[in-house]
């Protein structure tokens, strides 16, 4: 709220949402990006950006983010987590081609404050649910993404940091795994999201200290190696034991 | 970003920051609120709101929040944590008197997306640092705050939930305590912030499991009761032992 300023003409900002959609597959972590095709300095130019849109007056921020995601994927009920609002002046003006692109789509060139969301999709599960991407959208392996339009690379990096912290402090791993999983699968999931290899002995020692991960009386079948035992996640035990509370 | 819409006239939002400044004192948790004096339906009307302002084009969100706080308190280097962006249509229009007030200060009546920050001040320490409040600002005991302008009561409640979670997962308690503290002080701090009494035996059992809280070879002096031992917080041990990581 502003009490005593005549600077109103200086206060006309726009608000957008940007969505970092992580797609988990065994073996890799992907992110959903939009291909941007444009003329720049007389040549064809292609690059990538995060999916996003300006927020409309009749919708709240979460609704805008859900709309972007559902237009993009056809998926409706994906959990989106708001993790930051970013509004540095000049965030859209870092590169000449970004400014030219904004003009070409009649986008306001003023400051856009963006509210960033991330979500995590299990690509295999959602393929089964008839997941279809908009024409210009595609999955890219996280480690291959080097450059994005505007300040989107730093928005992506912030999302990745948030996801990695959340993986350590909330039970999101088990939403991505089948109900029965091996410790090898659990470790691989952590390695894929954290982006680094983990020591197997250490990993198993930590899992042994998690009372909410319990063995199932069942082993892998039809595998060429020694069959591994299955485990499952017990949300009620997690609720009881994992709360750090006084 | 918007690719293909002619809805620009429908996209003109404003952005504000709102600051929830918690003030910790032994025995209670306060929040800094602004008294709003207005005419409403022909009568004098007084109520309370959170400190905040519209974001200017030449500043980023964190800068705007710091500016609000420094204008309000004279304090410059207070840690502010961004915890939410809130933009429901109609959030400023819940009460007729709020609309009248916006008109009276020539505030845009359009949607304002607000970015919310919280900070935590030790009132006693900052008194020593020559803490002076703006005329219409005052500390209110959290438990006494029942109603605020606009949707500020829900912004305050969200800040309080974030603060309580942060107290459990980050070492903020020790920023509010003197370098040497008794376990009684540590328990009271938790009770004041969490808003509920804690069982002493249980509390001490949990503290005994925290390798980063160690006794100091020193006891209280000049107290009428049995002098309590002092403890201190060891950030380096905390860093090593408290990371939940694989």
Total count of domains of chain A: 2
- Helical coverage of chain A, percent range: 25-40%
User: How would you classify the quaternary structure?
Assistant: homodimer
Tell me, rounded to a whole number, the average pLDDT of chain A.
85
Shape of chain A: elongated
User: How far do the termini of chain A sit from each other?
Assistant: 37 Å
Task: Describe this protein's structure.
Two copies of one chain form a homodimer. The first copy, chain A, is an alpha+beta fold and about 250 residues long. Chain A folds into two domains: about 10-170, Alpha-Beta Complex (Nucleoside Triphosphate Pyrophosphohydrolase), CATH 3.90.79.10; about 175-240, Winged helix-like DNA-binding domain superfamily/Winged helix DNA-binding domain (Arc Repressor Mutant, subunit A, Orthogonal Bundle). Helix content of chain A is about 30%, strand content about 30%. Chain A has eight helices and nine strands. Chain A has helices spanning about 60-75, 95-105, 125-130, 150-170, 175, 185-195, 200-210, 235-240; strands spanning about 15-25, 30-40, 45-50, 50-55, 80-85, 110-120, 135-140, 215-220, 230-235. In chain A, strands 1, 2, 3, 4, 5, 6 and 7 form a seven-stranded mixed β-sheet that branches. In chain A, a hairpin with a 2-residue loop joins strand 2 (about 30-40) and strand 3 (about 45-50). The longest helix of chain A is centred in the middle third of the chain and has 18 residues, at about 150-170. The radius of gyration of chain A is 22 Å and the shape is elongated. The model of chain A is unreliable at about 1-10 (pLDDT under 50). At the A-B interface, strand 1, strand 4, strand 5 and helix 7 of A face strand 1, strand 4, strand 5 and helix 7 of B.
